[in-house]
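Appendix B. Chain record.
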Amino acid sequence: GFTDHVALGNEEWNPWDVDEKNELAASQQRYEANLKMIKYARSNQEQTSLRVQIWGKAAIGLYLWQHIFGGHLEPADVTAQWREGSQKAGKTYFSFLTGPSVVPGYFSVEAEHVVLVLNGREPAKIAYATQWLHYAQTLIETRKIQHVALVLLGNEQCNNAWIQPYLKRNGGFVNLLFVTYDYAFVNEEDIFQWPLGVATYRSFPVVEPSWSMLRDPRSYLCNFLGTVYKNSSRETLMEILKQDGLDRLCWIAAREQWQPQETNESFKNYQDALLQSDLTLCPVGINTECYRIYEACSYGSLPVIEDVMTPGDCGNSSMYHSAPLQLLKTMGAPFIFIKNWKELPAILEKEKKMSLQEKIQRRKKLLEWYRNFKAWMRQKFINTLENSFLPSEKG
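Structure tokens predicted for this chain:
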């Protein structure tokens, strides 16, 4: 509903000042010139060996393409029926298709290797995802394509049993699975954990860090804008904030019902809250991992995470113990992890005493970490596809 306010890739929207914009533009040009040089050097070394088409049929496809790959889409209008983009990375030429008009059988399959991005969060979504899997299976059987990888928005309780029969290891045709949340079957061989990312279904933008985002004092120690469910730890959080008058130091806007779509105003409020607070409180929902974590990182607001396992089948994979957010922890996320919101007052006391200089250092570290995290996920994704899809060099 608020696409005119901030469309992804919309160059006009800038919450920062004009002179900064000029400085940013200049540094962006220097950066792009360097990038061109590197790309040119690389393209002379590496021939494209693999063509991969990504079919984005779930909103996390936009996180993959625009945030992790830094790719663009034409047209820029997020409501367009058909959007596409392409880029070369490593030995691979990627093209990306998304939009309501991308329907099985009604577009040309232009690569022998396909990455399907699907939503498997609930039965209705699974029924839709299954149609795409059957389409891909037909293409494999008729030798139109050779390999299929799947990026899946998993179920929040990690109840993904329906996908198992499609995996190659179980006699199916899907070579690789990248799945969100701490799915117990993650093995780092053919099943990998994938980040949830930002809420692209609410058009959360790709945010470029700015001078003021890094340097300016922020008006609030912390923020929490979200739904407070009955008998949840979020109620405890609210009580603790009210108790010591801490809610006056933080931007708190609680509501009793979850709203899938934001208004222009509520979305702008949310972005402002992230930009204006040093910390972003991340209580668990149905799963410990939430969009808020990545959105806070985008604005240099440090996530304070309730580090507890939620009910369901997540955790306890052969790789990891029963602790949530394994992907982020393995990557050394510089967040504050707490077991109970009772720890919050002490954390906020410490915040009050921190100098701006210390906060700037911390923001720097967070923004840097997040940039590296996305670059690392991209590289891992590309390497995994190339190792799996390219014929091995061995004689």
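Further analysis of this model is presented in Appendix C.
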